[in-house]
Specification:
The chain is elongated, with a radius of gyration of 20 Å. The chain has 251 residues and is of the alpha+beta class. It has 2 domains: 118 residues, no CATH class; 102 residues, no CATH class. The termini are far apart. The protein contains 8 helices and 13 strands. It has a 5-stranded mixed beta sheet. Strand 2 and strand 3 form a beta hairpin.
């Protein structure tokens, strides 16, 4: 049985997976390139987010907070043995995503577990990522579990923290800004060592009531890393304080 741990947030190509698992050349490619494939007891899902697959299929895969809304292969059904095996897997369900189908690298988002499943064709599954053996800095236990909702008419309902929890957007934000708080400069790794590595909240700059229905997040323009204390203080006032206002208060 394969028992290999992948690092959440790290990029892997299929060739990297072949090398890590020592996959014989004659077993490479083929089903590995079709979106999901089982090797021994583990599943490997390679999902395109906001982009068409190399075969031209364009599924509406997307993150809803840190959950992944994912669609199976064309004409897949909930009753298929491969899909049914997701409910009680013998091993892990390793899920990798990318936003550019020309990029051979996928980001590992974690060992997926089914949160919801829909009997559609293609089948739709909401994956959650809460394996206690994995480090998920984007899943913050102290965050509000039932966030305030903003409703416009009867067609739009957006979670207030949904943009802050998207692991791909979060990854791009901290790759650009780092993991130190932009308000007080606190860094968890410097204070706590490996325990605090990559831990930081991510704050969404645009007030919820200014978000349009076709809103698309830009991690560099719209997100900033902030420590939990500063994040709480930003949202202590309504409307929320700006980062500059909180900086002035600290002075």
């Amino acid at each position: 049985m394969v028992n290999i741990t992948y690092s959440v947030g790290k990029n892997y190509s299929r060739k990297d997976i072949y090398r890590i698992l020592n996959i014989p050349r004659e077993q490479q490619g083929g089903n590995w390139d079709t979106g999901y494939h089982r090797y021994e007891n583990d599943w490997f899902i390679f999902a395109n987010i906001n982009t068409k697959g190399r075969t031209g299929h364009d599924y509406a895969n997307r993150f809803i907070g840190n959950d992944l809304e994912w669609y199976g292969k064309n004409r897949s059904k909930l009753s298929q043995p491969s899909i049914q095996s997701f409910f009680n897997p013998a091993g892990k369900i390793n899920i990798f995503v990318r936003e550019d189908n020309n990029n051979p690298n996928f980001t590992y988002v974690g060992n997926g577990r089914i949160k919801e499943a829909y009997d559609t064709s293609p089948v739709k599954i909401i994956w959650r990522f809460d394996d206690p053996n994995e480090n998920h800095p984007e899943i913050l236990s102290e965050e509000v579990t039932h966030p305030e909702r903003f409703v416009e008419g009867a067609t739009k309902q957006i979670n207030v923290n949904i943009f802050e929890r998207n692991p791909i957007a979060r990854k791009r934000c901290i790759e650009h800004f780092g993991t130190s708080c932009v308000v007080c400069n606190f860094n968890f790794f410097e204070k706590y060592g490996d325990l605090g590595k990559d831990f930081i909240h991510v704050h969404h700059l645009i007030p919820l009531n200014e978000i349009g229905e076709e809103y698309e997040i830009d991690p560099i323009k719209h997100l900033r890393p902030v420590c939990p204390n500063c994040h709480a203080m930003i949202h202590k006032r309504h409307p929320a304080l700006t980062i500059q206002e909180l900086r002035e208060m600290l002075k």
